[in-house]
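tokens incoming
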């Protein structure tokens, strides 16, 4: 998931810092130097990307690459502990991605085609919230739920279900309130508007 400045790098940094803490304080599942190296690389990337006018971008290759690395790390953690509830480390992205796919299927769209229907894209494009603020919202939300999960580890699956239901409700409420802005913006022009629109001359 990418498309706005700071999103990929900022969210990845939250997940990686969480994994460093887990690896150091809770369960050793991987060589620490690997985590430190990846985290340092993401910090350097954020220096150039997490700003109003980014100087470099992750693009599809960068976002997919860091996704594979993070999924590998969380997968390794799950294999070592036998605990699937660690997927909560990606729950904010997971809910947005999953529900956006379902939403697009309901709209009978081709989900393999590019789009701008993610919740964070609506926030940045339709609501005009600055990119770095949107990224901070996603980072803060993920950090909040990860921190709470680590505090309430005695009932991990109950907390995971609670988190999924909470984020799902927030997503649906947001879309019910603001998705019309995206729909109205991308409505096809009527014939009379087509001829009067100077962009089509």
């Amino acid at each position: 998931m990418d498309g706005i400045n700071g999103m990929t790098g900022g969210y990845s940094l939250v997940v990686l810092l969480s994994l460093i803490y887990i690896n150091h304080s809770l369960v050793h599942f991987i060589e620490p130097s690997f985590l430190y190296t990846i985290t340092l690389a993401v910090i350097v990337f954020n220096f150039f990307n997490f700003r109003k006018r980014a100087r470099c971008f992750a693009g599809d290759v960068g976002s997919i690459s860091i996704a594979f690395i993070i999924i590998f790390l969380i997968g390794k953690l799950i294999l070592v502990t036998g605990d699937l509830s660690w997927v909560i480390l990606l729950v904010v992205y997971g809910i947005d991605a999953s529900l956006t796919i379902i939403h697009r299927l309901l709209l009978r769209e081709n989900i393999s085609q590019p789009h701008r229907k993610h919740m964070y894209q609506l926030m940045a494009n339709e609501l005009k919230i600055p990119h770095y603020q949107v990224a901070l919202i996603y980072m803060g939300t993920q950090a909040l739920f990860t921190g709470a999960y680590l505090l309430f580890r005695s009932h991990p699956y109950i907390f995971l279900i609670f988190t999924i239901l909470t984020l799902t409700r927030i997503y649906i409420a947001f879309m019910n309130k603001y998705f019309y802005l995206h729909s109205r913006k991308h409505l096809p022009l009527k014939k009379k508007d087509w001829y009067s629109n100077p962009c089509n001359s």
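note: The first helix runs from residue 7 to 26.
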